[in-house]
């Protein structure tokens, strides 16, 4: 069955795709992180989410600090090149604004688990977690024996989120999506998810000349598309705008204290109209 | 008084350890500076891979994150993250992996997960990221860390990445055929694994550093190689290249 993606305003797209209690993966490996979509999730006050993401980044620091998240499945929770995610730490260390359950993996395991999800497999296999403590604290990390060689390998459950959310450069008139640059696990997360929402920098009639191997998600793999220019800021969109490294550095101070964090979120997210991306 | 900092000598010594034909899995911070310094000095053909999937990247400025646009713009090719970890890292294509950590023990096991109990941590650190598999799947591992008794500890709170385990043939017993940590480069000295016990011992001391100073900054009784040397100080060309790279980086990040 091929049902084309519908092009919707961001508020309607979030309303339709994301429900209280959902498991949600907002991906983008440093690049193309769907900040505008996350801000709309915060404005619509979604609660009790299970969030998947390899690198929680500022986007999940914000969702966690606003009390939207019960459970986080992740593999590296820092502010890249800067330091801690203070809201993530406050939730883990002090249960503020609510306790946060962690399900922790390595990057290799998360990447394999998304791949297994897209491939409709129940679990992923990797030669991983050898000699380390994570399997002791995460019962989802188990082992399987290779039926051919007898080798013991690590196994983790496939990631099959209720909703996958990514940002991309372009959608065409048919609702096909084009991604360029660091493509991370975006294709895998869309194909692994029950519903997929894509925000894009621009809508074009046709993608025009491109490599035969360009990363394109056909319209019928996507549920909804919302056009949100600068929708990845302070992350970036290759070919459109660079990563706002200054803002990543500034976030350290903003998020360090609960009050300064809440003030920033009120002014730059809660009081903003939908689709208007706050700039620092 | 030296005319360079501890951080600079650490980066320069780490850069010198890299070879022109190395394929290097690069982390952010000191490793990224060292790898790019090597590329700008004696190893122009070194292949640098960042875990964001940028292969053969030649950044003009150091990235703040492992996925800055600069890395993709200057890469030979950029692949997906599952491909990075499956084909390139697990596939055995990487000769040197570079790691750091919040805590290290005498067998070069690393902790970047928690200080204190996992369920109720005193400090929640970022976690493992790529490190658990980098530590076992790269041909060998170099570690750079600023040395202090708080981070060079007798016992880790959590093993995030496996070094030499409890020493001896521990890696082999787990089926690992890669070398693991072969060099630990700090701001004070260089340590390498003892050939038999695999405990990290001091093989070179940086200029102006004393043994008393080394021990004061280490949480276990340090051992020294019989063939210990003094690190040749960073030369003018190494320092100039590193400082120009850092200055270009500062300017680029301030502009954004």
Note down, in words, how this protein is organized.
The complex is a heterodimer of chains A (280) and B (256). Chain A is of the alpha/beta class and 280 residues long. Chain A has 9 helices and 15 strands. In chain A, the strands form 3 sheets. In chain A, strands 1, 2, 3, 4, 7, 11, 12, 13, 14 and 15 form a 10-stranded mixed β-sheet that branches. The relative contact order of chain A is 0.20. The termini of chain B are far apart. In chain B, α1 (6-16) packs across α2. Chain B has a single domain (6-255), classed as Glutaconate Coenzyme A-transferase (3-Layer(aba) Sandwich). In chain B, β13, α7 and β14 (224-230) form a beta-alpha-beta unit. The interface between A and B is large, with 55 and 56 residues.
Describe the secondary-structure layout.
The complex is a heterodimer of chains A (280) and B (256).
Chain A: E1 6-7, H1 10-17, E2 23-26, H2 35-43, E3 49-52, H3 57-65, E4 69-74, E5 78-79, E6 83-84, H4 86-94, E7 101-104, H5 107-118, E8 123-126, H6 134-137, E9 142-145, E10 152-157, E11 163-172, E12 177-179, H7 186-192, E13 195-204, E14 215-217, E15 224-227, H8 245-256, H9 258-270
Parallel strand pairs in A: 1-15, 2-3, 2-11, 3-4, 4-7, 11-13, 13-15
Antiparallel strand pairs in A: 5-6, 8-10, 9-10, 11-12, 12-14
Chain B: H1 6-16, E1 23-26, H2 30-40, E2 47-50, E3 54-55, H3 69-73, E4 77-78, H4 81-89, E5 96-99, E6 103-104, E7 110-111, E8 114-116, E9 121-124, H5 131-137, E10 140-144, H6 170-173, E11 181-185, E12 189-193, E13 200-205, H7 211-216, E14 224-230, H8 236-255
Parallel strand pairs in B: 1-2, 1-5, 5-10, 10-11, 13-14
Antiparallel strand pairs in B: 2-3, 3-4, 6-7, 8-9, 11-12, 12-13
């Amino acid at each position: 069955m091929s049902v084309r993606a519908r092009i919707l305003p961001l508020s309607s797209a979030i309303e339709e795709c994301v429900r209280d209690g959902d498991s949600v993966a907002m991906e983008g490996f440093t690049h193309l992180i769907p900040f505008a979509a996350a801000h709309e999730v915060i404005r619509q006050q979604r609660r009790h989410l299970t969030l998947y993401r390899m690198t929680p980044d500022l986007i999940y620091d914000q969702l966690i600090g606003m009390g939207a998240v019960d459970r986080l499945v992740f593999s590296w929770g820092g502010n890249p090149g800067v330091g801690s995610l203070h809201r993530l730490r406050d939730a883990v260390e002090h249960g503020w604004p609510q306790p946060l359950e962690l399900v922790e993996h390595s990057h290799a395991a998360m990447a394999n688990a998304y791949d297994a999800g897209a491939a409709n497999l129940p679990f992923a296999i990797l030669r991983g977690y050898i000699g380390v403590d994570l399997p002791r604290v995460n019962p989802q990390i188990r082992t399987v024996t290779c039926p051919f060689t007898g080798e013991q390998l690590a196994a983790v459950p496939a990631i099959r989120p209720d909703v996958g959310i990514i940002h991309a450069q372009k959608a065409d008139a048919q609702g096909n999506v084009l991604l360029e640059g660091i493509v991370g696990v975006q294709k895998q997360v869309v194909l692994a998810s029950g519903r997929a929402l894509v925000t894009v920098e621009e809508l074009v009639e046709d993608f025009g000349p491109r490599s035969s191997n360009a990363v394109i998600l056909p319209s019928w793999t996507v549920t909804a598309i919302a056009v949100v220019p600068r929708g990845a800021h302070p992350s970036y969109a290759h070919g459109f705008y660079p990563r706002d490294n200054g803002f990543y550095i500034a976030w350290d101070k903003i998020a360090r204290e609960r009050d300064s964090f809440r003030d920033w979120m009120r002014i730059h997210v809660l009081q903003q109209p939908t689709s208007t991306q706050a700039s620092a | 008084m030296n005319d360079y900092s501890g951080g600079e000598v650490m980066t320069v010594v780490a850069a010198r350890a890299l070879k022109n034909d190395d394929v290097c899995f690069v982390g952010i911070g000191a490793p990224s500076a060292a790898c790019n310094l090597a590329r700008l000095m004696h190893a122009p053909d070194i292949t640098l891979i960042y875990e964001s999937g940028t292969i053969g990247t030649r950044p003009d400025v150091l990235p703040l994150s492992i996925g800055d646009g600069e890395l993709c713009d200057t890469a030979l090719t950029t692949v997906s993250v599952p491909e990075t970890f499956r084909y390139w890292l697990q596939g055995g294509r990487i000769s040197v992996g570079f790691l750091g950590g919040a805590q290290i023990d005498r067998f070069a096991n690393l902790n970047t997960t928690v200080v204190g109990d996992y369920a109720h941590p005193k400090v929640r650190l970022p976690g493992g990221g790529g490190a658990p598999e980098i530590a076992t799947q790269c041909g060998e591992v170099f570690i750079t860390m600023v040395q202090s008794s708080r981070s060079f500890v007798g016992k880790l709170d959590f093993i995030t990445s496996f070094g030499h385990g409890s020493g001896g043939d521990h890696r082999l017993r787990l089926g690992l055929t890669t070398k693991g940590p072969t060099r630990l480069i700090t701001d004070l000295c260089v340590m390498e694994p003892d050939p038999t016990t695999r405990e990290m011992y001091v093989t070179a001391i940086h200029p102006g550093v004393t043994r008393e100073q080394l021990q004061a900054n280490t949480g276990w009784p340090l051992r020294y190689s019989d063939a210990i040397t003094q690190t040749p100080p960073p030369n003018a060309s190494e320092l100039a290249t590193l400082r120009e790279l850092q200055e270009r980086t500062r300017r680029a990040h301030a502009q954004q």
